[in-house]
């Protein structure tokens, strides 16, 4: 075989391209970590205004990254909000919502449909390693577990930590005031196998953290997606012995401070592995605080109401985005954003085309996160089950139906004609005295038109939560 100068030149270019880290797919694609808490309130972190709960690691994360001050879950309860995060779609489109049975239970026969495309499945197309650690709550039967929705590994509980309550447990709220792990028969699973039942919830935050660090450390050579969904601070509240009595805010504060410790361990693992500069971390919650449990529930800060309602306290979440070298330290994202938007954002950053065979409700947040422009999201639809309760358009929020989850008001739905109208950038607490409906009839008419267009294109799916034949 003979070689000319062209042949040697071609071989040199080929060898250089194979050796150069700039051409490695694993180097060019970012890692993604979502840390999703359960029932965390907008006002529960020091960096979001809590005066007594100490969250130094999350505070550092915010000072090194971006606080998102108008970031929303897609629903005020866990199953539909988690489905929306995974699929980038309103829960009504996948059937993961209900007007009656609002979340999945241990006797539910359904779960997230196989026809839905999850973030994990999309990222697998670019050879991402994927792991789900923590609370899933999108179906506990084998067909619906994370390992059938794009995750290579699963370690956690399949539904909420207050489910599978045993008959001998104290009745009513007493079981939550003085909880014992034996009161709930919740399984801890690895892949599709139960490895502990009942799960020892006093150690569960630590176990999740250890599993997350193991996954990070064992996947340094290829891109990865880690979904860490803490069981806490959903009641019943548990924390490890090291955090018992540590917080000035009682047991709830202890639980939050242990989650903060967990975040610190994960961030340190990224820094020590030299992965930080190539990893986007999102910290958020699935819905607002469960206020009916008083000092065992969190705080929505200046926002109205909490979990279960479509007032701001039920769906606006304390959210932080961190990516050294990409997200400006100490920045604040004030644009409207949703957990559904992580779907389009991760697709864009991983260079994956969005699905074109379904309607998506996801917007790419990359311009806002990287300081290159504003979020493209201008509207937000607040659903309670299949009922459209409110709409946000720019700074304006119109309430068509309100239903309090907490407080002295009625917990029955109240229809408003004309709708209540608040400017959330002036009145984030949604004080009734600042209802501007009478002064803004033209604006309400435009919002009604947006609603009509949205509902004309909303194809809803049969509820997986209610149809026991599924």
SSE blueprint:
Elements: H1 5-19, H2 25-28, E1 31-37, H3 56-64, E2 66-72, H4 78-87, H5 91-94, H6 119-124, E3 129-134, E4 153-156, H7 174-177, E5 188-190, E6 193-196, H8 204-217, E7 224-229, H9 250-272, E8 279-285, H10 312-315, E9 316-322, E10 331-333, E11 337-338, H11 341-349, H12 366-369, E12 379-384, E13 387-393, E14 396-402, E15 414-423, H13 441-456
Parallel strand pairs: 1-7, 1-8, 2-10, 2-11, 3-4, 3-7
Antiparallel strand pairs: 2-9, 4-5, 5-6, 8-9, 12-13, 13-14, 14-15
- The CATH C-level name of the largest domain is Alpha Beta
SS content category: alpha/beta
**Care to count the β-strands?**
15
Overall residue-averaged pLDDT value: 93
How far do the termini sit from each other?
Answer: 66 Å
Sketch the topology as an H/E string, one letter per element. HHEHEHHHEEHEEHEHEHEEEHHEEEEH
The outline comes out as globular
Architecture overview:
- By secondary structure, the protein is α/β, with parallel strands linked by helices.
- The chain folds into 2 domains: 28-378, Alkaline Phosphatase, subunit A (3-Layer(aba) Sandwich), CATH 3.40.720.10; 380-456, 2-Layer Sandwich (Arylsulfatase, C-terminal domain), CATH 3.30.1120.
- 26% of the residues lie in helices and 18% in strands.
- It has helices at residues 5-19, 25-28, 56-64, 78-87, 91-94, 119-124, 174-177, 204-217, 250-272, 312-315, 341-349, 366-369, 441-456; strands at residues 31-37, 66-72, 129-134, 153-156, 188-190, 193-196, 224-229, 279-285, 316-322, 331-333, 337-338, 379-384, 387-393, 396-402, 414-423.
- The relative contact order is 0.18.
